[in-house]
Specification:
Distance between the termini: 57 Å
Strand content: 15-25%
Strand order of the largest sheet: 4-3-5-6-7-8-9-10
Number of helices: 7
Order of helices and strands: HHEEHEEEEEEEEEHEHEHEEH
CATH superfamily of the largest domain: Fructose-1,6-Bisphosphatase, subunit A, domain 1
Shape: globular
CATH topology of the largest domain: Fructose-1,6-Bisphosphatase, Chain A, domain 1
Number of strands: 15
Largest sheet: 8 strands, mixed
Radius of gyration: 20 Å
Bound molecules: 2,5-anhydro-1,6-di-O-phosphono-D-glucitol, manganese (II) ion
Helix content: 25-40%
Structural class: alpha+beta
CATH class of the largest domain: Alpha Beta
Number of domains: 2
Length: 341
C-alpha cells in the first residue's frame, strides 16, 4: 500500500503552492496521529472550559487542545501564511510570504466527545492571495488547492483531495503512517438514505419540510420507494458514510434565531466537504446554489448545506425551485404532509 508521503511526493508538479501541500499534509498527518492518541486515551476532553468561540459555541477542552496542535502543525510546516480556525476569532498570521492559507475546524462533532462517537478535523487549503491576510480566506471554494478531513473513530482515516479525485487513507495506529486504501472514491449517484437532525422539523422552511415529508411517505408517496435515515451528529462521520455507500446530508437553514443559514460554517466545514464530495462525483449546494461558488464575507459565516448523492441533491433543489416559483401552493401540490394539516 502507498503511504501518504509517497503519494504527496508523486503529486509534486514544481508549482510552489501545489508542492507546499506535501509539507503541510505531512505536518497535519503527524498531528492527527497525536490527536487520535489523545482521544483514545480519554479523560476530561469534553469538559467545557468556560469560554465561547466566535460563533457562540461553548469551547470544550479538546476543541482548544486540537486547535493548539494544528496551529503548531501549520507553523512547523513552514508553508502557511494565515491560519483561520473555528476556535479563533480572527486569522492567526504566521508568515506573510508563505504560499498557503489554512481554514480549519480543529475538532468537528464536539457534542460527541464524551460519548466515544467518531469526531474529526476538517481542513481547507487556499492560495495566499497577498494583501490583508485577515481577508485571505475570503475566497470562493473553487479556489481551494486541497481539502481534507480526519475521522477519529474505530479507525483513524483521512479523506483528501488535491483536485485529482478524492482518496481515502487509514492510519496505522502504531506507526501513525496513513496508508492509501481507496483511490478515486465514487459516491453512488442514487441513494435511499438521508441524514438530517429531525428534531428541527417544525423549524424547517417549506421546501425541506415537503422534501422530507415525501421521503417519509416512502412507497406510499410520490417517491414510490422507502428511505432510511442516519444522523450521527458529527459532520465528518456522516460524510464518511456517504463516501462509503452514498446518501444525502442536509443541514438546512431554519426558523430558529441565528439558524436562518443553518449551523455549519462555509469556509472550514462546507467548502472542504463540498470540494471532496464533488471530486468524488457527488454534489454540494446550500439547497439552491453550488457551495463552491459562494463568496464568503466573514470567517465564521454559516451556510445551509446539502451534499452527497447527486440525484438526491438535485431533488432537494427541485423542491426549493417549486417554492420559489409558488408552485407548492397550487392544488397539485396541496397534498397533506406530515408537517402541515
Ligand atoms: P462542531 O462540533 O465543529 O461545532 O460541528 C458540529 C456540527 C457537525 O459536526 C454536525 O453535523 C452538526 O454540528 C450537528 O448539529 P446538531 O447538534 O444541531 O444536530
Ligand atoms: Mn464542525
Ligand atoms: Mn468544531
Amino acid at each position: 500500500m502507498v503511504a501518504l508521503d509517497a503519494r504527496l511526493q508523486s503529486l509534486k508538479t514544481g508549482q510552489p503552492q501545489q508542492d507546499a501541500l506535501v509539507e503541510l499534509f505531512t505536518a497535519l498527518a503527524a498531528k492527527a496521529h497525536d490527536v487520535s492518541r489523545i482521544i483514545s486515551a480519554g479523560g476530561e476532553l469534553g469538559n467545557t472550559i468556560g469560554d465561547q468561540n466566535a460563533d457562540g459555541d461553548a469551547q470544550k477542552a479538546l476543541d482548544v487542545m486540537a486547535d493548539d496542535e494544528f496551529l503548531e502543525a501549520a507553523k512547523v510546516s513552514g508553508v502557511v501564511a494565515a491560519y483561520c480556525s473555528e476556535e479563533q476569532d480572527s486569522a492567526v498570521i504566521i508568515d506573510e510570504s508563505a504560499p498557503l492559507i489554512v481554514a480549519i475546524d480543529p475538532l468537528d462533532g464536539s457534542s460527541n466527545i464524551d460519548v466515544n462517537v467518531s469526531i474529526g478535523t476538517i481542513i481547507s487549503v487556499l492560495p495566499n492571495p497577498g494583501g490583508d491576510l485577515q481577508q485571505s480566506a475570503m475566497q470562493t471554494g473553487d479556489q481551494q488547492l486541497a481539502a481534507a478531513f480526519f475521522v477519529y473513530g474505530p479507525q483513524t482515516t483521512l479523506y483528501l483531495t488535491t483536485g485529482n479525485g478524492t482518496d481515502l487513507y487509514r492510519m496505522d495506529p502504531v506507526s501513525g503512517v496513513f496508508l492509501l486504501i481507496e483511490e478515486g472514491i465514487e459516491i453512488p449517484e442514487d441513494t435511499s438514505e438521508y441524514a438530517i437532525n429531525a428534531s428541527n422539523a417544525r423549524q424547517w422552511f417549506t421546501p425541506v419540510q415537503r422534501y422530507i415529508s415525501d421521503l417519509l411517505l416512502g412507497d406510499e408517496g410520490p417517491r414510490e420507494r422507502n428511505f432510511n435515515m442516519r444522523w450521527i451528529g458529527s459532520l465528518v462521520a456522516d460524510a464518511g458514510r456517504i463516501f462509503n455507500r452514498g446518501g444525502v446530508f442536509l443541514y438546512p437553514g431554519d426558523r430558529r434565531p441565528k439558524y436562518e443559514n443553518g449551523r455549519l460554517r462555509l469556509i472550514y466545514e462546507a467548502n472542504p466537504v463540498a470540494f471532496l464530495v464533488e471530486q468524488a462525483g457527488g454534489a454540494a449546494t446550500d439547497g439552491t446554489t453550488r457551495i463552491l461558488e459562494k463568496s464568503p464575507t466573514e470567517i465564521h459565516e454559516r451556510t445551509a448545506l446539502v451534499f452527497g448523492s447527486k440525484t438526491e441533491v438535485r431533488w432537494v433543489g427541485s423542491y426549493e425551485a417549486e417554492t420559489r416559483q409558488g408552485l407548492d401552493q397550487s392544488p397539485l401540490f396541496s397534498h397533506r404532509n406530515l408537517f402541515r394539516s
